[in-house]
Amino acid sequence: MNKKIELLAPGGDVEAIKAAVIAGANAVYCGLVNFNARNRASNLSFDDLPGVLRLAHQHHCEVFLTLNVVILEQEIAGLIKILNKLVNTKIDGIIVQDLGVFNLVKKYFPTLNIHASTQLTTHNEGQIKFLAKMGATRLNLSRELNIDEIKSLTSVAHQYDLLTEVFVHGALCVAFSGQCYSSSVSVGNSGNRGSCSQACRDEYEITETGNLYPLNLKDNSAYFDLPALVDAGVDSLKVEGRIKNAHFVYTVVDTWRQQIDKFEKSGQLQNNDANLHRVFNRSFTNSFLTGDLNKDMFIDSPRDYSLKHAIKESQVVLVEDIKQVKKAHYQKKNSLGDELADKIKDISIAKQTLSLSFTGKLNHPLTLTIILGDNDKTYILETESTLSLAQQLPITQSVLERCFKNFAFNHFDISDFNCTGLSENLIIPFKEISTLKNQATLLLNNSEKIMPHVDVPQLVTHKKRSDKLSLSILIADVKDLFLCDLTHADVYFKLPESLKKGCNKHIDILLENPHLIPWFPAVLIGKDYDESVRILEQVRPKRIVSNNTGIAFKAFEMGIEWIAGPFLNTTNSYALLTLQEELNCAGAFISNEINRVQIKKIARPDNFKLLYSIYHPILMMTSRQCFFQRTVGCDKPSIEDGCMLKCKKSTTITNTKGVSFAVDKQKGGYPSIYNNEQFLNIDIVNELSELFDEFFIDLTDIGSGSKAEPDKEQLLAQFENILNGDEYAQQNLNQMVALSTRNQYRKGL
Questions:
Q1: What is the CATH number of the domain that holds 699?
Q2: pLDDT band of 644, cuts 50, 70, 90
């Protein structure tokens, strides 16, 4: 093969980064303490970064920094401070989830390469076009995709000069990345903020199928699928594991390095993946990649499977034999750790030391001699003007030390600051000292231009289009069309995630009811994206709501007004501005994950509509896998093409605290899990109505919490009464909606 494929490794701390580099990673991704989606990792301080970059680049390894969480309005200033620092480092790219960060970087820090995080759930052609327009240089494809889908999307990405990454090893989420709210809802730790508490790994009451961990997937390993990934044109193979230790990182990266090297040289694969089984794993599956979504993807324990694998492979049953297998397993595992320790024992990421020496005498230039401590490389610079006798305030060591404070962006440690060769009572124009400092900084930056500090203007909020506050409702079935006759509210019609190819059912519904506003879901893969595009082209509605950026991009191309749905996770003003400026978005739902104070800080763009959902089922997670295989059971060995369109099962799972969650699957939808409570937030109507144009209620049947059939006509009437100031309507709603919560509005992110 001619193409070099990148091996991208995790670096949760400095030791793991060293391990990845020594093991042969082509690139490593790591995070700072703030703004990254692995808060449980040790992460880096900014002081660590120069040494990490120097170490990696010495080994021809790139470094990508994770800024891959949604950003709150009050954090924008801190984020800009970090970006101002990053532009003057050698960072090779930043990994981003928040749409607002795209806007900031594209406008103010264009030298930074933007990588689209897996949290953006990229799975269709339109999303790739969207990310290209936003300024991304590479994207991480959804890990739920199969190899044919990966190949097709990689081809599209390359047409737009975008590189693609695919996760090939490590933990798998059962939910679509970026579309999981289970941790946020249940314990207030949002996966979109790097605080996932991994509810999918939790123990539940035993299910009908006899499983205690019905949501727990095996780990991902595409070790023997390398030829297919190369054929698909994938640019980067990504290893998951920023909360894993250095031993794990070294072993996995080293094993993959050997596999890639052999395949690049000979076109053949190594058959032995034994070392992958010697570090933490939950057993392995490649079923997402092969498209065979079967029961074997699950394992009924989230704990380390490595020892069990060793015993299973040895086929021993006697206690003494098992002891010997166990001993051998740990000996081999420890030997890998010893190998790593030996290789990195002398590696340091300490800052380079810098010696600064100033010399000069009357009528001669001020001379600066710089010595880099690690290689004794010497640079000599001098001023254009000469030193003269000082009438007052002569140049002293303390003056020069103040001038060279934070020299070279703190990338070096100044080990010696020597002015003994500078004669006393002399002076030179201060601008000459500043020029000398700038020349030295440029020299130490390999003669690359130093980017000046950028002050990003603070956004101001604009007035609403109208003082009138309106209500909107969501339905998903023609049986609920009667509600349209009972209200002046906008009526959104929810389209399913799966659509039968060539079927005009939803086109006919929308054409026959032109007042309905199409509502597009967050996940639209393959034919379902194509069919959604066909609906847009055939119906050409005046307005849509889209939770999928691919459909949003298509609406933008067609000149159709569109609103950003609640699952686009908008939490700050710059995200709104991005949507408006890049895609002519007319308005957006503000995320239900943020609280009153966080919402209040958001600035509305000019001529832009703000919406908020005050009543809806609380989605915990959505999956391409089947939740029923491990709960109530299913006769099918694996998911078939027709499952999405035909299956409409439902059940519940109950955690060890006795809290039950609705597992729902409506026709045409992905299997989803919902909280036992409905989201009901009337407080925001009383507290922040001046910020919003529209409050929204979801009157679909999916995930209805208590499963009690609500009287939709009565619900609609009470919500309208709320907006009209009826003081009894809230009491009536609390009685009608028996199980409800507004905790996210109170707690926030």
A1: 3.20.20.70
A2: confident
Same domain, 440 and 484: no
Write the DSSP assignment of 373-436 as a string of letters.
TTTTEEEEEEEEEE-EE-SSS---HHHHHHHTTTGGGG-EEEEEEEEEEEPSSEE--HHHHHHH
Domain of 372 in residue numbering reads as 352-444
CA angle 180, 181, 183 (to 5 degrees): 110
Give the pLDDT of residue 377: 86
Distance of CA 119 to the CA centre of its chain: 3
Q: Which two tokens stand for residue 726?
A: 């009826």
Can you tell me which residue has the tokens 């409702």? 473
Across 180-202, b (16+ Cβ under 10 Å) vs e yields bbbbbbbebbbbbbbbbbbbbbb
Cα→Cα distances 747→101, 184, 480, 596, 615, Å: 24, 10, 34, 9, 17
Number of domains comprising the chain: 3
Would 671 be classed as within a structural domain?
Answer: no
Domain match, 428 and 280 both:
no
pLDDT in tens, 684-709: 999 999 999 999 999 998 865 445 67
Report the amino acid identity of residue 33.
V
Q: Are 123 and 262 found together in one domain?
A: yes
6: phi then psi, degrees, rounded to nearest 5: -80, 140
Is 475 found in the same domain as 440? no
Grade residue 189 by pLDDT with cuts at 50, 70 and 90: confident
Positions of E strands within 32-80: 62-67
The Cα 139–Cα 156 span in angstroms is: 12
What is the rounded distance in angstroms from the CA atom of residue 617 to the CA atom of residue 185? 12
On whether the CB atoms of residues 91 and 82 are closer than 8 A, the answer is no
- Asked if residue 495 lies in contact with residue 521, where contact means CB atoms within 8 angstroms, the answer is yes
Asked if 425 and 503 sit in the same domain, the reply is no
Q: Residue 405: CB partners within 8 Å, gap ≥ 6?
A: none
Q: Is the dihedral of CA 603, 608, 612, 617 positive or negative?
A: negative
- Contact yes or no for 162/132 (Cβ under 8 A): yes
| Segment 303-356, tens digit of pLDDT | 999 999 999 999 988 999 999 999 999 999 999 999 999 999 989 898 888 899
- Contact criterion met (CB below 8 Å) for 739 and 677: yes
